[in-house]
Each structure stands twice: as C-alpha cells, then as structure tokens.
Amino acid sequence: MANTALGILSILFALAFLVLSSPKYYDNTFFRLWEDREHDNEHPRLHVLLLTAHPDDECMFFAPTLLGLARITRHVGEQGSYYGPLADVYSLCLSSGDAEGLGETRKSELEAALDVLGVREGRRWVLDEPFHDNITEFWDAKLIAQQIKPYIEDNKIDVILTFDELGISSHPNHISLERGVRALLSESPRRHLRAFSLKTTDLIPKYTGAAAGLVAKYEEVICILLPNSSLLQALPTQLAVPFLSILPVADCSKFDGDKVNDRALFLSSWPEYVTALFAMQEHQSQLIWFRWLYMLFSRYMWVNEWEEMVIETV
Ligand SMILES: [Zn+2]
C-alpha cells in the first residue's frame, strides 16, 4: 500500500516537473506596445522600468517578469535587422530598506540580486531620500511622481511596472507606489507612457507556490478545450456534480492574444524559480526563517499577472 502511494506520488511529481519545465509568457500586450511606439536605432527596444519600494521586492514579487522579459526576443532594429531582446529593463527602488539601520547593506544586496536577475549596472537606482522603509507610513503620491519623473524622462521609459492598489502584502509603502504612478500619469500624460500593476490575489492562492504555476497551465488547457467553464467542471469525473458550477469560471480572455491589450502574464519554469532563489540568496540580511517559507509557498515566485492602470481623463 505504502509502495503504491509512493509510486503515485512519484508519478505526480514527475508530471508536475514536466509541466513546469518550460516558462510561458502571455506578452502580446508588451509586444503591441513595442510595435506601436516609434522606433529609431537609438531606442529600438521597449524601455521597461520596475518600480519597487524596498530591496528584495524585486525577488519576492517580480522575478518571473524580470526573468521573462530578459528571454523574450524579437526582430528589432531598422526593418527587423537583428534579433534581440524586446525590452531593456530598468529598476528604481524608492527606499534603501533602512527600517533597521541596514540601508547600506541592503543597497549592495540589491545590486547583487539585480545582477542575478539580469538588470544591468547603469540601469538601476536606489533612493536614500526622501522615502524611508516604514510599515506604518504611506508615502506622498505627488512626491513619488516628482521623484520618478526624471528617471522616466532621462531613460525614455515606455512602461512602468509596479504594485497594485493592494500592494500584494498590504504594505503601505507598496500601495503608495501605485498611487504615485497614477499621480504621475494624470499629471503629465505622455502618449506612450503606460503603466501596469501586479495583481494581488486572495490569501489562499497567494501561498500556492508551484501549484499556482500548475493551475495557470491547467487553466490554459481548459480554455482551449472547454472555454469559459468552471475550472473543476472541466474534469470529466466532475461533470455530473452540479454544485461545482459555483466555482469560479476560468478567465480565458487572458490567454487570447488577439483580444488582450491591457494584461500580461509571466509564468516561470523550474530553472527560473531556481534563479529567483539565487537572487534572493543575495539578500542575506533578510533571510530569516519565514522568508524561506515565503519562497517555498509564494505564488509570486512563479506567476506574475499584470493589469494596465487606466487613468480617467476628463
Ligand atoms: Zn517591500
């Protein structure tokens, strides 16, 4: 009996390993942004800025996207003259994470982590002032807009990526970034500056780890076979159970590259997950026991879902 259970477990593990052995990107939105903007030889790629609040945010929440953007290649340059990355990625961290007086240490840890995640020197910055790592403080949205504006303009940024209005962990510093980017977009709308926020999920899906990646791949298959059905209803053995109709309907629109213009999804594979772990290893001052649990169980080490921030214009 124990042997059978072990055999089944091994098969399931091998299947999960296979399913998660390749990354997946629904990046049509970014591709269209790249197509829509005006190209010149000095600026042939999309300039994407990751805006974070603390050193380690980039590993804990955004690694699937950073690693994904580094892998997405297109024909770029004049008349598709060379094959290269779709995007140049920049990183701006608005505080040094100095809540415990470790600002300088955390800044050098961030440098090392961004090396692992592929964000080059000269394209990454940390601000010492005016924002400070504080779990009880919201940062002023207008001041954020004012601080980030020069980085946007000097580096001809096309796309800003940051937290959403719930900040993944509800940290007020994270939430402030979304408000700051909205303030920037509404103050000085530049035709081609767009911003996307990382979707905060409910508590349970947030801690599903590698299973979140498996669910995303399963959902994609369901959407191909049985579009817009409840996730479990699509399993043949469950078809007869009516109460399953209360389960959430699979949101298939996000997989439809022809229709989606305001969302993107990055799903890591095992090698990318391991790279994110190595990057997190650089944040030695932060590696207390519960962060290891986080890395094991967090969905954000595997899946990043993005939604565009829409600014109402009057
Ligand atoms: Zn943070």
What does this structure look like?
One of its GO terms (cellular component) is endoplasmic reticulum. Keywords: Signal. It comes from Sanghuangporus baumii. With 314 residues, the chain is α/β, with parallel strands linked by helices. It contains twelve helices and ten strands. It has a single domain, classed as Rossmann fold (3-Layer(aba) Sandwich). The protein has an eight-stranded mixed β-sheet with strand order 1-9-10-8-7-2-5-6, with helices on both faces. A two-stranded antiparallel ribbon has the order 3-4. α5 (103-117) runs antiparallel to α11 (270-281) and α6 (141-154) packs across α8 (172-187). Zinc ion (ZN) is lined by residues 53-54, 57, 171, 174. Residues 53-54, 57, 171, 174 line the site of zinc ion (ZN).
Element pattern in H and E: HEHEHHEEEHEHEHHEHHEHHE
Give the CA-based shape. globular
Examine the secondary-structure arrangement and name the CATH architecture: 3-Layer(aba) Sandwich
How many beta-strand elements? 10
CATH superfamily membership, which one?
A: HUPs
Report the β-strand fraction as a percent range.
15-25%
Helix content: 40-55%
Characterize the main sheet: 8 strands, mixed
Question: How confident is the prediction overall: mean pLDDT?
Answer: 84
